[in-house]
Amino acid sequence: MKRARIYHRGRDVWTTVDEERRLLNLPDGSLVPLADALWLPPVTSGAAVYALGLNFSDHNKELGFAPKLENPLIFMKGANAFVGHEGETPRPADGNQMHPECELVAVIGKLTRKIAPEEGLSRIAGYTVANDYAIREYLENFYRPNARVKNRDATTPIGPWIVDAALVPDPQALAMHTTVNGAVVQQGSTADMIMGVAELVSYLSHVTTLMPGDMILTGTPQGVHFCDPGDTVVCEIEGVGRLTNYLVTA
Amino acid sequence: MCLALDLSLQQVDYYRPATAQAIRESSLALGDWAALFPIDAISTQMSGREIHSWCLERLHRNPAQLVSDLSTFMTLRAGDVLLIGLPGDAPILSEECELTVMAPGLPTLKTRLVEEQA
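YS: structure for the whole thing
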């Protein structure tokens, strides 16, 4: 099953997605064509959202970093940062080095505390796609990305929906790519993650208690491309979803 | 505003603080809220003895400047909590203890550091 959160007649509603019939099923039984949906970020209110930096061996190589950091680079995101599928992201006038970062997002399904990596995947409810844009000239410290880079209003597109974990048997074998105006600028595989989903869940569960709805943005593969206002940026992960974002002048 | 006690595990490298060391369960104690009040210094006591004191003049950005700077790229909403910063010379705690954080004009914050349950 796929679950999406949309804006419908004055409120936000969680729906299920029928991709074959191109419809969203609302809780009251009514239907909305996919083409008419106003997509909201599929993020649970109050969820803690963790994001990984430098978690792909190919990306680390491209940037000249060690293949594996001593401590995983984790930062957190506030709800202000998210924008849904087909939403707009402001591109600052001086943000000439703004690049898209396609990421697999794991959504926690159960209260999780101090578990082994082998149990990690059993705690995942589903997966979605995020585009964790970075603006490189604002980055002051690679090891702790500042809020001006990673917590900007509407600068983390996420969605379109959450795919049930049962439909993604191996989260470490998914092709991922980003296109800008149709041209491929990022291409990789979740197989290149340094810490995989199961290991990340276990690691975080030893630091804090993970709650249903919490999310982990698992990092981005190689491919650094600088975007302009007016660009259409699409991040796609095999079997999970295709997330579209429009860059506009801030 | 209120006082906070932000307990972090010791970082290997001051310039490469790992988030996981700073977001541990129940590691941020918040005191009771009070109206805005000009604060000069914050004192931390361990079992009645002062172990740290710092002057807000040391802040690179004062609270008003911080809110202004952050608001240029993120929307701050009513109820959002902003920790205004930590001095780099924070003390190290090595055993279970009673901790008290004080600043004239703000409700005192008391908490207890205990061994983490396995």
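YS: worth flagging: The radius of gyration of chain A is 17 Å.
IM: good catch. Also Chain A touches chain B at residues 50, 70-76, 78, 80-81, 92, 141, 143-144, 147-148, 151-153, 203-204, 207-209 (CB under 8 Å).
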